[in-house]
Structures are given as structure tokens and as C-alpha cells.
Specification:
Layout (H helix, E strand, L loop, with lengths): L1 H28 L10 E7 L5 E7 L8 E6 L5 E4 L7 E6 L5 E6 L4 E5 L4 E6 L6 E6 L5 E6 L3 E6 L6 E7 L5 E6 L5 E6 L3 E6 L4 E7 L5 E6 L5 E6 L3 E6 L4 E6 L5 E6 L5 E6 L4 E5 H79 L4 H78 E3 L7 E6 L5 E6 L4 E5 L4 E3 L1 H7 L1
Antiparallel strand pairs: 1-2, 2-3, 3-4, 5-6, 6-7, 7-8, 9-10, 10-11, 11-12, 13-14, 14-15, 15-16, 17-18, 18-19, 19-20, 21-22, 22-23, 23-24, 25-26, 26-27, 27-28
Helix pairs in contact: 2-3
């Protein structure tokens, strides 16, 4: 009887241990809270009511399933995990009513999820290359999909299954991001070709182009009032533009690619995330006041940079002119040398003729040979005379030009030296203007405490009180904007 009781007790202990082990394993696979999440996060998005944060990413680009996780934005607890992507997930967006979540993977697959059930209700597999960006229209009826294949497709979601209604072609590089204007009529797309294009997407017609970035444009967003746009690029800057595409000002301060951006709901702040591991919050009210000064400096920087390029071009042209002039002098010198050579040949022929005549008089016995020599000498003399006449003619024509050509060489050399001297002066002026512009930008930004890895994505909650930051090593951070501190930081330290 005692042995039976011991056996039952042992079974209970083993069962409890098994449950504990399984629970620990489940927790390791499915972190219970944001503070415990350790996989890389490439994109983040808040639900329209601000209660849920969606994060996507994974562990490997291609060879392992990607993550789509929903978190309680208040407590940081995990609410759901959607399974289905075969590769890392790189884009996420909530529909305006919050009922649909769109996600896109490295292999080009786009999935639409029912947020009430967590089930995938549709899959779009139009693009065969990496899909980098997604954007819902303001009315939630359409979805824009941005691909590495240099095209953007727009889908009508009102049907039983998504239906493609537009394909926008015109970019020559990867499309990294898209944004609908608040009225839904215009779609802005950011590309690796260094431009942002504005489209009447319903008509598949390009209506504008934003040019100014010197490297790939990674992100684009409309301000809440639709009066301006912001762009972020690999040239380490963010830019503000008016709705027509006119540049307002450049925000310089990051030291590496600017990968993401987001307007605060009130439109007064712009958050930018960068591969320099920092997030900057730009005061757009102050930026508006300094926009004129910044624009003047930017214009000055552009003008001085252009002047430097022109000076460089002038130096190059002057250098070519000098080389051409030297070539002309060399050609004239060759003509003169040919004349001298012809003159020597004529003298030699005259001498040969005289020797042949003397030989004829002196060598009666060799009359036939001498006659042949005379014949050869005569032919040589005739040929030499022809060369002499031709060389003399060229000499008379070209000799007067030598002085002018020599002067051209001197003048061209001087012009080249003068142009080269202007170049560093222009470059110095351009650098000074750029430095002043950067100093103004620095006054506008508040930099959050740097993280441990590149920042891939930023998003504001709908009330503007929380900023979500997605990165590699740091996974997810939630920044309390008003309190100027990281949420759940204590939980992370406790975990560590």
C-alpha cells in the first residue's frame, strides 16, 4: 500500500515537472511580453485605436518562417502570433478600421489577416521579389504594395478576393515605401533611384517627382493635414516638401542611413530612425520658423557646390584646350622637321648628281653603269624636289602659326591653372554652407538614447504619447514621449 502511494506521488511529481518544462518551452518560443522579445523587428504599426502594436520580422531572411506578433500596447503582453509567412516579414499596416492587418515577406508574399480571428483571409502573390512597403488608402478599400521589382501594385479589397486595379511603373530602383495622401487621391512612392514619385494612382499617371536626395529614398509619409511630405534616405538626411513636391528644408544630423520616419498625430514632430542606432525627434514648429533660413543655406550650398562643379568642368575644358594647343604645336614642329629633312634630302641628291656626273667623265669605261646611276640619281632628285616643294609649301603655311600656337599653349595653361585655383575655393564655400545648414538642423532635433543596433522602423500611437521603435538587436522599444523614458525598461533589466 505504501509502495503504491509512493508510485502515485512519483507520477504526480513527474507530471508537474513535465507541465513546468512544457510551459518554460512555450514561454521560450512565445515570449509573454515585449520585454522578453529578442528576434529582429523590421516594421511596427499601431492599430487605429492605439491599443495594439503589431511587429514583424524574424530570424533569417529566407530560410526560416517570419514573425507577425500583436502586443497589448499598454501592458506589453503578447496578444497573438500569426503563423503563415515562410520568410522574414518586412512590412506591416493596419486598415483604417483596424479589422485587417496586411503583412509582406521577403519572398514577395502579401497576407491579409482578420484581426478578430487571427486567420489569414487572403494572400497576394503578384510580386516575385522582396516586398518592402504596404499602405492602405484612407477609406481602407485599397492597398498599395511596393516591390523590389521596381513596380507598385494597387489592390481593391472590397471584392471577395483582392483585385489588382493599378500597376505603377516608372521608377528604376527598388520601391521601399508608399503613402496615400489624406484625401486618398495621390500616392507617393519612395525608391532606390533617389526619387519620390507622386501618382494619380487611379489613372496610373505620374503627376510629380521629388528630387534632391543623393542616395536611395527609404521612407515617405504625408503630414496629418496633407500639406507636406517627409522623406528619409540613405544619404543620411530627411527632407520636408510641400504637397506639390517643392523642397522646404533638409534635416541633417544622422550619421548613417535614415531608414524610417513617422509624423506625430498633431503634425508638430517628426520621428526618424537610422542605422546609426538612434532615433531623432524633430521639432517641426521650430523647423517652420527656420525653414526660410535653412532653405537659403541649402540654396547657397547648392549654388556653391554647382560653382565648384563648374570650376572643375572649366579646369577640365581648359586642360583639354592646352593639350590640343600643344598637339597643334607638335604638328607644326613635325611639318618644319619634314621641311628640314626634305631640304637635307635635296642637298644629298644634288651631291649624288654631281658625283654621278664626275663619275661619268672620269669613268669612260663604266659609261653604262654611270648612266644608270645618273638615271637613279635623277629620279631621286625629282622625288626629293617634289617632297621639298610640298614641305616648303607647308612650311610657308604653318610656320607663321607656330607663334600663335605657342601663345595658345601659354594662355591655355594659365586658364587651366586659374580654373583649378577656383575649385578649392568653391568647394570650401560649399562645405561652409553645408555645415551651417547642418548646425540649424541640429537645433531642431532631440536624440533619444542610442540603442545597440540599427533602427528599421518607427511609429507613433494614435494619441501621440508612445513611439514604437523596431530594430535588430534591441527588437522592440516603446518610448514614453511625455515622460521621456522607455516603457518596460525595468522589465528588460530584470530579465537580463
Amino acid at each position: 500500500m505504501i509502495a503504491l502511494r509512493r508510485y502515485k506521488l512519483l507520477l504526480v511529481v513527474c507530471f508537474v515537472a513535465l507541465i513546468a518544462s512544457h510551459a518554460a518551452s512555450s514561454l521560450a518560443q512565445k515570449p509573454a511580453a515585449i520585454a522578453a522579445h529578442e528576434r529582429f523587428v523590421t516594421a511596427v504599426a499601431f492599430s487605429p485605436d492605439g491599443k495594439t502594436l503589431a511587429t514583424v520580422g524574424g530570424e533569417s531572411l529566407l530560410y526560416r518562417p517570419g514573425d507577425v506578433i500583436l502586443w497589448d500596447a499598454t501592458s506589453g503582453a503578447q496578444k497573438a502570433k500569426y503563423e503563415g509567412h515562410k520568410t522574414a516579414v518586412w512590412a506591416v499596416a493596419f486598415s483604417p478600421d483596424g479589422k485587417t492587418l496586411a503583412t509582406a515577406g521577403y519572398n514577395g508574399t502579401v497576407k491579409l489577416w482578420d484581426t478578430a480571428t487571427g486567420k489569414a483571409k487572403a494572400t497576394i502573390e503578384k510580386h516575385k521579389h522582396w516586398v518592402r512597403g504596404l499602405a492602405f488608402s484612407p477609406d481602407g478599400k485599397h492597398l498599395a504594395v511596393c516591390s523590389e521589382d521596381t513596380t507598385i501594385t494597387v489592390w481593391n479589397l472590397g471584392e471577395t478576393a483582392p483585385k489588382q486595379v493599378a500597376e505603377l511603373k516608372g521608377h528604376t530602383g527598388t520601391i521601399y515605401a508608399a503613402a496615400f495622401s489624406p484625401d486618398g487621391k495621390t500616392l507617393a512612392t519612395a525608391s532606390g533611384d533617389k526619387t519620390v514619385k507622386l501618382w494619380d494612382w487611379a489613372a496610373a499617371k505620374e503627376t510629380g517627382k521629388l528630387e534632391g536626395h543623393s542616395d536611395a529614398v527609404w521612407a515617405v509619409a504625408y503630414s496629418p493635414d496633407g500639406k507636406s511630405l517627409a522623406t528619409a534616405a540613405a544619404d543620411r538626411t530627411a527632407r520636408l516638401w510641400d504637397a506639390s513636391g517643392k523642397s522646404i528644408m533638409t534635416l541633417a544630423g544622422h550619421t548613417n542611413w535614415v531608414s524610417s520616419l513617422a509624423f506625430a498625430p498633431d503634425g508638430k514632430t517628426l520621428a526618424t530612425g537610422s542605422h546609426d542606432r538612434t532615433v531623432k525627434l524633430w521639432d517641426l514648429v521650430a523647423a517652420g520658423k527656420l525653414a526660410g533660413q535653412a532653405a537659403e543655406l541649402a540654396e547657397l550650398a547648392q549654388k556653391t557646390a554647382t560653382a565648384a562643379q563648374e570650376a572643375k568642368a572649366q579646369a577640365s575644358v581648359a586642360d583639354k584646350e592646352a593639350k590640343d594647343a600643344k598637339s597643334k604645336v607638335a604638328a607644326i614642329a613635325a611639318v618644319i622637321k619634314a621641311f628640314e629633312d626634305a631640304k637635307k634630302a635635296k642637298t644629298a641628291a644634288d651631291g649624288a648628281m654631281k658625283k654621278a656626273a664626275d663619275a661619268k667623265v672620269a669613268a669612260d669605261k663604266a659609261v653604262a653603269a654611270a648612266a644608270e646611276n645618273v638615271k637613279k640619281a635623277t629620279a631621286a632628285k625629282t622625288a626629293a624636289n617634289k617632297k621639298f616643294v610640298a614641305a616648303e609649301k607647308k612650311h610657308k603655311t604653318e610656320s607663321p602659326k607656330k607663334a600663335a600656337a605657342d601663345k595658345l599653349v601659354v594662355d591655355s595653361d594659365k586658364k587651366a591653372k586659374d580654373a583649378a585655383a577656383k575649385q578649392p575655393i568653391a568647394e570650401k564655400a560649399a562645405a561652409a554652407a553645408k555645415a551651417k545648414s547642418k548646425a540649424i538642423s541640429a537645433k531642431l532635433a532631440t536624440t533619444l538614447p542610442p540603442g545597440n543596433s540599427t533602427v528599421w522602423s518607427v511609429a507613433y500611437s494614435q494619441d501621440g504619447k508612445t513611439l514604437a521603435i523596431g530594430s535588430h538587436r534591441d527588437s522592440i522599444k516603446l518610448w514614453d514621449v511625455a515622460g521621456k523614458k522607455e516603457k518596460f525598461a525595468a522589465a528588460k533589466k530584470e530579465k537580463e
